[in-house]
Amino acid sequence: MNNHLDALIKQVEAKLREPLASNIDKWKNHLSDLINQIAEVKLDSAAVVNGFHVVDESLDPTDWTSARCVAHTMLDASLDFVQTVRERPVWQPIPDRVRSTLERESLPQHGQSMSDVCDQILVNILPYSTGNVHPRFWAWVHGAGTIGGVIGEMMAATMNSNAGFLSHSAVLVERTVLGWMGQMFGFPADTVGGIIVSGTSMATLICMAVAHNRALANVRETGLVGGPRLVAYASSETHMCVVKALELIGVGSAALRLVPVDEQFRMNIDELKKTIREDRNNGLTPFCIVGNAGTVSTGAFDDLGQLASIARCEGVWFHVDGAFGSLIVLDPKRRSLATGLEQADSVAFDFHKWLHCSYDAGCALVRDRTELHATFSTRRHYLAATQRGCAGENPWFCELGPELSRSFRALKVWFTLKEHGLLKLGQKIADNCEQAQYLGTLLAQYSSFIRVVTPISLNVVNFRLEPDDLLHQMDSPEIIDVFNNEIAADMQESGIALPSTACIRERLYIRVAITNHRSTLTDFDIFVKAILDRCRDRLAKIKE
């Protein structure tokens, strides 16, 4: 065995002394194969101690100096990626070569060097991201991230803490962040509670489960069998995560009453009252009203104050879907849009949207933390609490949500809030809203063939190209829908800017949702010019 090992080591030494071959990949693969063979021999020859066959080696680097060099290279690559973002397209499709490499890669049986794996990331993965780091990514409501977030994520990964339970700094940081959020939204400091989760979808599921548990006190033990038929209420503009949450807690999507909206896309209060009254007369049990703080399509706000009042009168849970719009409380000029949010029983929102924390990080915040505990707390002997030692800090976060294993998401949020402060973060939110108004003004210059949805109340601009040449040739709203959809796709594939589309009053519009701290007014000038250019190009093709 030792002779074989010595022979392999000599082959490696000889390989390292060779001049670099013209086919560097072949040379590296041969060297990697030799190293893997050495590892196998060492595994086979591991010492047997008291009958146990153990290799006394960890997964840590054997060469810490080289590992540091690789790590510094990757950190520099991360910084370069952000610093030079304007030199790249917003988004680019994944080439067939790269797609084939990623999709057809076999399950690794033997390891590669850390530097080789990092090289693969830099070549095949990093260049083909979503694009939301770029200043002209406005397609979906994504935050742009920060360098501080990169550092926070790195340190959280270094600590590798499970934030679900036990006594350690991750638990204290998360509690601190949640306290700050309660203060920011005006919830009572002595009762507010919450949990940091992957995003608003999970936060909504948690909040709906809490509302459900309050409505049916024994539902955790007995389930839904034989209980009352529950119904919930939300506007027709409500995000699909509310529907999914009701499905997952067993209430079902049919139990959600989608109330019509007014001309400003806000829930029609009279229709809500009428629907509740009809449901009660039909023997149904209302248990939750969902208010929108910034709808996904237009950024509209329901009248949260009125919804809170109705919820109190009806004795039902009042939840606010505030994925991004709830953060408008940080903009003094527009915070009145969210008046009434402070009266909610719960709010679900994201840190990774308008606060620009790295994906993923959202929050379920509740007025009364005992409601969370009553919905999710359960203990077994292997999770026994103690007054001393590592198992302190009760209640644990695993008692406030569905997960026992939880990453230290709170650190990047804490870092972002500490680094920038609410005033600066609020200013960037205000900037995005002003940029939306600016874009609306630019588009209004072409009102003869561009229809803009008004009012632009927040950070979302929807517009529709209706050129006369196309209307004369094809007098069909559906054809105009297709035309605008193609323009949006043209823009995405051009790499100049990334809008998306939205269906508003049954017609397709190009949608620009601005949650990007890197955007400038010049970016919107570039965008409008590119839209006009692509409109002309498409019309020219139609005429051919």
UniProtKB/TrEMBL annotation:
GO terms for biological process: amino acid metabolic process; carboxylic acid metabolic process. Keywords: Decarboxylase, Lyase, Pyridoxal phosphate. It holds the Pfam family Pyridoxal_deC. The modification N6-(pyridoxal phosphate)lysine is found at K353. Its cofactor is pyridoxal 5'-phosphate. One of its GO terms (molecular function) is carboxy-lyase activity. Signal peptide: none annotated. The keyword Protein biosynthesis does not apply. Belongs to the group II decarboxylase family. This is Uncharacterized protein. It comes from Didymodactylos carnosus.
